[in-house]
Design a protein that fits this description.
The complex is a heterodimer of chains A (306) and B (307).
Chain A lengths: L3 H48 L16 H7 L2 H32 L6 H9 L6 H11 L6 H8 L11 H29 L3 H9 L4 H12 L1 H16 L3 H7 L10 H11 L3 H27 L1 H4 L1
Helix pairs in contact in A: 2-13, 3-7, 3-10, 5-7, 5-11, 7-11, 10-13, 12-13
Chain B lengths: L18 H35 L2 H4 L14 H9 L2 H32 L5 H11 L4 H13 L22 H4 L6 H12 L4 H8 L4 H9 L4 H17 L2 H6 L8 H11 L4 H21 L1 H14 L1
Helix pairs in contact in B: 1-14, 3-14, 4-8, 4-11, 4-13, 8-11, 9-10, 11-14, 11-15, 13-14
Classes of the chains: A mainly alpha (306), B mainly alpha (307).
Chain lengths: 306, 307
């Protein structure tokens, strides 16, 4: 006969064995992911820092040059111009993106017939790749035969040469990207709207609030987390803008639409100055990281900060 | 008919509309605005479809011809014969589909382990993965090229990773770095967390192996999550541009996005074939969306919540 204590001991030994086996399988299951993570994330991040202190050029050179790349970068007017360019882009794009997607969401946040079809239509542009969308908009914005200027001319307006004029080139990219992104932000806002409790609106209506009052004093403040999410994502996206500028304007005219990623791509892969390009990438990455951290901070402790 | 005033008195007084009439007017205004916006959003699609089927003389006509006088497939023929668009299409499809299969498998395998299995360092490893999601792609771009180029025993390389091209200019250079995306792991882990653990205990008592528990019991329960993740991965793979452009320089390995960009760069005035190419590049995602719409929407709602 087995005593109770003995049984207990045996059971815990079996549990330990099972635990060990489970742990082994756990490691095995995450192994491929962690291995790929090591090769394509940990090593590259470490190397990025190292390369930014070298004159690596793929072919022959790979020497330590100290802070040379960084001092060069400080005086590189084109590099800072690209930041000004995406800064302008963000300043125009982010508010329009917020307002349009919010209004679309408010418009479609009702149970009427056909709402689903309308949502589908608003969402369709987000499915296009940046390259395909830019190709289509290249034709839409054609100065003579394009649809945009064709419609403008119906109202007696002579449209600009959109993509080939310094003043309007970035506006062209903004127009196209707005068309491409308001649909998905609308969905995010719709999810946010559905989280606002109905009693807020009901009691406001009892107090005689107008529809605009409700939007201003209930909807907008209640959606604050969503708004922060959408705007920080848009800013981070702006800092990494590339495809649109590459296809629609090729960075031109006169570098008016050159973005940091575009410049890093050219520096690294056309001129093969990979050391210098790494330094540029590192500075850009820090800028992006700052915005990611801000967004995380605000999302976590949303009320106390603002 | 009286005009609508925003700050009228109580609805019943004098000349203002009855509630029913007002509701009907509001409904009409809603549809008018809603449909107008839908037209604006759809206009670029309409315009590019029309252009792709229009003969040249209609394309360069002013004022705008909304409906072409005749239809032609000439632009599609030209797009597919001047450059191998069919091959590009296949390359993109292969890369995107392989990305989906690998991400679904590795993402759910490690997502399951992070959610359900107990082992030392589980949460630490997961937190490192999550933190790395904040590292922007641009910072790893150049060193990743170095890593690919010096991948041991690949593409003519020796054991130390020198001598050849490594994984550069090979599909593996695109597939491997994204084969187990952190987003996939995170997404699947969140889903496995919602599933109960007692099925696991039961299966263990029955003597079922850990992999079979994952593969036969838990994985089938995650079908909706897999569908959402699969669609997102496919869309990302199909639409990606910069990384394939860096890795692949053999024209026969180009993706559809690269081919389209090169085409619109080299044949700048050939808008007909350009639109035909752009539409071909958009079509697969559009079909996928229309077939599996609800999974798309779930995915965006999720990425909105996770922040």
């Amino acid at each position: 006969m087995i005593s109770a204590g003995n049984l207990e001991k045996r059971r815990s030994a079996a549990a330990a064995r099972l635990g060990k086996h489970q742990a082994r399988m756990g490691y095995l299951f995450v192994l491929p992911t962690m291995l790929l993570f090591l090769i394509f994330m940990v090593i590259p991040v470490g190397m990025a820092l190292y390369l930014s202190f070298t004159n690596y050029d793929v072919l022959s050179k790979n020497d330590w040059v100290g802070l040379e790349n960084y001092t060069r970068l400080l005086n590189d007017n084109l590099y800072w111009k690209t930041f000004v360019n995406v800064g302008f882009y963000a300043v125009v794009f982010v508010p329009f993106n917020l307002i349009i997607s919010l209004l679309l969401a408010v418009l479609l946040n009702r149970a009427a017939r056909g709402v689903k079809i309308l949502r589908t239509f608003y969402y369709l542009p987000t499915l296009t790749s940046a390259v395909a969308a830019a190709t289509v908009w290249l034709w839409m914005l054609h100065p003579e035969y394009g649809l945009v200027n064709g419609i403008l001319s119906m109202f007696g307006i002579v449209g600009p040469a959109w993509t080939s004029q310094t003043e309007t080139a970035m506006v062209s990219i903004i127009l196209m990207t707005l068309w491409q992104s308001v649909g998905s932000n609308m969905i995010i806002y719709l999810a946010g709207l559905q989280g606002i409790p109905d009693y807020l609106y009901e009691s406001a209506r009892l107090d005689g609030a107008s529809k605009f009052d409700c939007l201003r004093y209930i909807t907008w403040p209640q959606l604050r987390p969503t708004t922060f999410l959408v705007s920080t994502m848009a800013i981070i996206g702006a800092l990494q803008l590339f495809d649109q500028a590459f296809v629609l304007t090729q960075g031109g005219p006169a570098n008016a639409t050159k973005t940091p990623v575009y410049l890093i791509y050219q520096q690294g892969f056309n001129q093969l100055q990979m050391g210098y390009a790494s330094a540029q990438a590192f500075v850009l990455a820090i800028a992006i990281l700052i915005f990611s951290l801000i967004s995380m901070r605000i999302n976590k402790s949303e009320e106390p900060i603002l | 008919m009286s005009t609508m005033t925003t700050k009228g008195g109580p609805p019943q007084t004098g000349r203002s509309l009855s509630p029913a009439a007002r509701r009907r007017l509001g409904g009409a205004a809603f549809y008018a605005v809603g449909i107008l916006i839908a037209i604006v959003m759809f206009l670029p699609f309409y315009w590019s479809v029309m252009t792709s089927f229009k003969p040249d003389e209609d394309m360069f006509a002013m004022p705008i011809r909304w409906i072409p006088t005749s239809l032609t497939l000439e632009h599609y023929r030209k797009a597919f014969t001047t450059v191998p668009f069919g091959l590009y299409f296949w390359n993109s499809f292969f890369l995107a589909a392989t990305g989906v299969v690998l991400n679904l498998f590795f993402g759910s395998l490690s997502g399951y382990a992070f959610a359900k299995l107990k082992f030392k360092g589980n949460s630490a490893m997961f937190r490192v993965l999550l933190a790395a999601m904040m590292v922007p792609g641009i910072v790893t771009m150049i060193p990743s090229v170095y890593v690919l180029r010096h991948f041991p025993l690949m593409g003519g390389n020796d054991l130390l990773g020198s001598g050849g091209m490594g994984l550069m200019n090979s599909f593996w250079g695109i597939i491997l770095p994204g084969a187990s995306g952190t987003f996939a792991v995170f997404f699947m882990r969140q889903f496995f967390l919602t599933l109960p653990s007692d099925m696991m205990e039961m299966a263990r008592i029955e003597g079922c192996g850990e992999f079979r528990i994952f593969w036969n019991i838990y994985l089938p329960l995650t079908k909706p999550a897999l569908a959402t993740l699969g669609i997102f991965t496919f869309q990302a793979g199909w639409n990606s541009f910069l990384w394939p452009m860096i890795v692949l320089n053999d024209p026969n390995k180009a993706t559809i996005q690269m081919g389209l960009q090169a085409f619109s760069f080299n044949f700048q005035t050939d808008y007909g074939p350009m639109m035909a190419g752009a539409l071909v590049a958009i079509l697969p995602i559009l079909v996928l969306f229309l077939a599996l719409q609800r999974y798309f929407i779930q995915g965006i709602a999720f990425s909105g919540i996770k922040g």
